[in-house]
Write a structure and sequence with these properties.
The protein is an alpha+beta fold. The protein contains one helix and nine strands. Strands 2, 4, 5, 6, 8 and 9 form a six-stranded mixed beta sheet that branches. A three-stranded antiparallel beta sheet has the order 1-3-7, with no helix packed on it. The chain is globular, with a radius of gyration of 18 Å. The structure holds copper (II) ion. The site of copper (II) ion (CU) has 8 residues, from strand 5.
């Protein structure tokens, strides 16, 4: 009997820890998947389980946000490109304004380290939005 209660206890603990773990990651604080926005709109970037700091050196558990427009997550350890579709928030910003053409777009929030090397899919979030004129 003692063994069974130990197993139940460990299972409960594993479930609890994995439930906590699933909260880790990045999220759009003010935009839901499928949101309708105007051509210029505000984006609030959030992260759980890491800390935002300006780009520079690589610090474990820290990094900064990027937004990939009409793309997808950047594979782990790959440098996030810097162009009009891959925007870096290397000052440690958690808020920005984007201007997009009307129609459907995707926005991917991607967290990366101080040298802009991606933390991978686990630290990304992609949503669809519709931009209305
Ligand atoms: Cu960057």
């Amino acid at each position: 009997m003692k063994k069974i209660s130990q197993i139940v206890l460990s299972l409960t603990l594993v479930m609890f820890l994995s439930a906590c773990g699933s909260n880790e990651g990045v999220y759009f604080a003010n935009l839901e998947d499928g949101a309708e926005v105007g051509t210029t709109f505000k984006v609030e970037m959030g992260v759980n389980g890491m800390e935002v700091e300006p780009a520079g050196e690589v610090v474990k558990g820290k990094g900064h946000h990027h937004i990939v427009i009409d793309g997808t997550f950047i594979p782990t350890a790959t440098m996030v490109p810097a162009d009009e579709k891959n925007i870096h928030y290397g000052k440690g910003q958690t808020e920005t304004e984007l201007t997009l053409t009307p129609g459907e777009h995707t926005l991917t929030l991607q967290f990366a380290n101080g040298l802009h090397q991606s933390y991978g899919e686990e630290w990304s979030k992609t949503i669809k939005i519709t931009v209305k004129d």
